[in-house]
Design brief:
- By secondary structure, this protein is mostly helical.
- It folds into two domains: about 5-155, Ribonuclease III domain (Ribonuclease iii, N-terminal Endonuclease Domain, Chain A); about 160-230, Double Stranded RNA Binding Domain.
- The protein is about 60% helix and about 10% strand.
- It is built from twelve helices and three strands; from the N terminus they run αααααααααααβββα.
- A three-stranded antiparallel beta sheet has the order 1-2-3.
- The longest helix is centred in the N-terminal third of the chain and has 22 residues, at about 45-65.
- The termini are far apart.
Length: about 230
């Protein structure tokens, strides 16, 4: 664990007036339980707040960016930006796992790499920024760390569909996946997937479920195919 929260402040380009808010956002319930602190000492309440702030900011952005989209399409776009896998990517980009306060058992089980823990901590961080600097500070953070990567994050929601649609536009291209578990204990397996086009391996991905591994592989394949066609 990295206790140097000023380094995290530098990574996110935001200086807290109250550093205790940032520290609070990094306290997982496993650590709170191990320390026998009150329930509210964990980051779960900040996560709840951050989730609401994130949804508001993303909704506002999409409403203004797509003035002619119906409600249903806006909802789909929003869900592709605020789901676990997308927030996990954003959390990893700022090495958020390094700063988490985890219980010893959770830490030993790879808690710093778990998408659910990282995505929750990312929302808690948004909540902390909101309380410390207000809505505009939170908006700037969200725009910098989520909205700026909107195209890639949207693909994470359903990269397999996007790849399938791309392949269908080409002649004589056949797509298949090979997925297997290759690392980790039974309760925390890591899966690896390779995507093949015409029996040639194009890309691979890993994840804590077969679906996530295949989505990562599909995203890698899509990037490679589009780059080659430029």
């Amino acid at each position: 664990m990295n206790n140097n929260l000023t380094a995290l402040e530098k990574d996110i380009d935001y200086r807290f007036k109250d550093l205790n808010l940032l520290r609070h956002a990094m306290i997982h319930s496993s650590y709170q339980g191990e320390m026998q602190w009150k329930k509210e000492a964990s980051n779960e309440r900040l996560e709840f707040l951050g989730d609401a702030v994130l949804e508001l900011v993303i909704s506002d952005f999409l409403y203004k960016k797509y003035p002619h989209e119906p409600e249903g399409e806006l909802t789909k776009k929003r869900s592709s930006l605020v789901f676990e896998a997308a927030l996990n990517v954003c959390a990893r980009d700022i090495s958020l796992g390094d700063y988490l306060y985890l219980g010893k058992g959770e830490d030993m089980c790879g808690g710093r790499e778990k998408p659910s823990i990282l995505s929750d901590a990312f929302e808690a961080l948004i909540g902390a920024i909101y309380l410390d600097g207000g809505l505009e500070s939170a908006r700037r953070f969200i725009h910098e760390h989520i909205v700026s990567d909107i195209d890639e994050l949207v693909l994470l929601k359903d990269g397999k569909t996007a790849l399938q649609q791309y392949i269908q536009q080409k002649d004589n291209m056949k797509l298949r996946y090979e997925t297997e578990d290759f690392a980790g204990p039974q309760h925390n397996k890591i899966f690896k997937s390779r995507v093949f086009i015409n029996d040639k391996a194009i890309a691979e991905g890993t994840g804590h479920s077969k679906k996530n591994a295949e989505q990562q592989a599909a995203l890698g394949a899509l990037k490679k195919l589009k780059a080659e066609s430029c």
